[in-house]
Amino acid sequence: MRFPLNLFRSLVPLFVLSLLLAACQREPTPGTTDTATPAKRPEAAVTAPDRDEHSYAEPHRVMIEDLALDLALDFDSRTLAGTATYTLDWKDGEADALVLDTRDLTIEAVEGDAGDGWQPLDYTLDDADPLFGSRLAIQAPGQPGQVRVTYRTSPGASGLQWLEPSMTEGGELPFMFSQSQAIHARSWVPLQDTPGVRYTYTARITTRPDVMVLMSADNDPDAQRGGEFTFSMPQKIPSYLMAIAAGDLVFKPISGRSGVWAEPATVDAAVAEFEDTEQMIATAEELYGPYRWERYDLLILPPSFPYGGMENPRLSFITPTVIVGDKSLVSLIAHELAHSWSGNLVTNASWKDMWLNEGFTSYVENRIVEAIYGEEFADMEWVIARRGLEQEIETVRPALQVLAVDGADAADPEDTFSSVAYDKGAWFLQFLEERFGREQLDAFLRGYFDHFAFQSISTPQFVDYLKAELVAADPTAVSEAELDEWLHQPGIPASAPQVLSPRLGLVDSARLAWLGSAQLPPPQLTAEWSSQEWIHFLEGMPETLSLEQMAQLDTAYMFSQTPNGEIAMRWFPLAVRSGYAVAYPPMEEFLVRVGRRKLIMPTYEALVQSPEGVAVARDVLERARPGYHPITTASVEQVIARAPEPAPAPVSPVLEGEPEPGEAAEPAIDPEAGDAGQGGRA
Ligand code: BES
Ligand code: ZN
């Protein structure tokens, strides 16, 4: 325990109380008698599944083996234009068509080469489906070994963002980047856009001579600008890992095989924040086997990047919002790196099994963090993630609270992108660790990554392998019913192992003490707090605080001015719910500057609870629109469109009591409360 003893003593009674409360929740239940049945060891099959509900492709008839891109990247017209040439593996002797996914692409020509040179091929491009885009069906009688499509992207392509120089840090050169997961690759390359198909690729990209171009491929740290770049990705990857970026990017090494690409003004801060990257790679290798992708570099994007990170192979794309100066948010790097095993090496064959990617990755992330930053730190991350899961799962319909989602329940792949896949998935692996032992689970996972390397698999394939390789050796450790509950039942299983974090327990005590007495925790204590402690401090607050309470916190901790997005994403919604107007100007500045969905959506969601807030949200969106990524714009528009209807005029006044400390208040807008309940409360 690293805290001064006198402080610790004064907080101990409350701390013990919070431990007791936590212990009253769930305890792990011992293994029951209906033990899981071990299965025979499955052969790793390199066949694609017949159907991915989010793709028009028919990989059981023909599969892309290699893609060769030759594209002109033009900032003025905001387009990529050129050719995509596919080398095909025809699986079905009867097949005579290649069906590709596209979205908002202009198709200019389609040709095939069956050994007698390029010949035009007939094709049809269907009307666009709002979720999946347009099916491109190419008639290919004679099963040509190669097909070539000449096309151009639309300036509004959902998978690309084009930024004016003014939206970059340097302010002089434009910037562009892709975000292909889950089904946006089809907006910049016609593809079999399903994670069930893997292929190698090469690319030749031409562009203006003053920008650097990078891809999810063999980027050369010594690359020179000059308008033409070539890339090769010799390992088979699924389409959602296709990536490209261009702008004023420079490189600085972290280690021999790792470094940072960023705008010149950011690169030094990024190298300092992420200096532990090599240690993370070495840790993951020790646990799960060699890093198989040669280099591991980070690309720092502008703050409009819609995600925290994206595991594009050899070059993770990273939000700059985690560069906070104390390395407290670098578990994001551990996460994206972990995908080099869970996701990029062994991939979910369709998005309904997203937990195989994100759940495994969240578990591996925590193991890397634990090895480098210690158990205390890793435990804080578990506790924060699980609190988030417990809150979010309430809002998710039961069919999507399961790990192995039924395709029919996930019309949109976004449906599976919740903390269920991430945190319930990781929790399941921690449950297996608890039951089988860490050493056994580590050996199992290492074998799993080897066995299915460079393949795309489904939950049943994982379960067969689990039973054959882990359960068979210790059949009483888990029961069939427990496995079924984890994989196929909604909610959080009773067998979920509990993690306690004494450090966050102290934060609970400090918060409770402040709520009860207005006494802020001693500065010597909070001076030691990391982002995780501040996150927890804010997350445990009641739904609303009084203006006096908000002002007291803001004066002491300058929350409204925080450069830390994880704090801002919790403080600003609290400010909106509490009607704390002082926070609005910095809040609006934050919402315009940052496009990372996770950080800004909670504030928009809080705003749209009142008509006044909807007006603010609309106004901010209009100002932010030029800098937002299409993915972020779509999410914000959706939240505004779904804003609750304004409440009817009140018939009689409704009295509202102040919430007790620790008790969740009513939402700021109670539809029954009329105008009195709107616009926050003092
Ligand atoms: N692969 C995801 C990002 C993603 C998921 C993009 C689904 C599109 C659809 C990435 O690895 C990720 O999980 N990023 C998280 C950070 C992580 C530390 C939980 C994010 O962006 O917040
Ligand atoms: Zn991830």
Write the layout of secondary structure elements.
Blueprint: H1 5-23, E1 62-74, E2 79-90, E3 97-102, E4 106-113, E5 118-120, E6 123-125, E7 134-139, E8 146-152, E9 160-163, E10 175-178, E11 198-206, E12 212-215, E13 228-238, E14 244-247, E15 250-255, E16 258-262, H2 267-273, H3 277-288, E17 296-300, E18 309-310, E19 315-318, H4 331-338, E20 346-348, H5 354-373, H6 375-393, H7 419-436, H8 438-451, E21 455-457, H9 459-471, H10 480-488, H11 502-517, H12 523-526, H13 531-539, H14 547-557, H15 565-578, H16 584-593, H17 597-607, H18 611-624, H19 630-641
Parallel strand pairs: 1-11, 16-17, 17-19, 20-21
Antiparallel strand pairs: 1-2, 2-8, 3-7, 4-5, 4-8, 6-7, 9-10, 10-14, 11-13, 12-14, 15-16, 18-19
Helix pairs in contact: 1-11, 3-4, 3-5, 4-5, 5-6, 5-7, 6-7, 6-13, 7-8, 8-9, 11-13, 13-15, 15-17, 16-18, 17-19, 18-19
This protein binds ligand BES and zinc ion.
Zinc ion binds next to helix 5.
Question: What does this 3D model show about the protein?
Answer:
The protein is globular. The protein is an alpha+beta fold. It has a domain at about 15-45 and about 350-490: Neutral Protease Domain 2 (Neutral Protease, domain 2, Orthogonal Bundle). The chain starts with a helix and ends in a 41-residue tail after the last helix. About 35% of the residues lie in helices and about 20% in strands. Bound molecules: ligand BES and zinc ion. Zinc ion (ZN) binds next to helix 5.
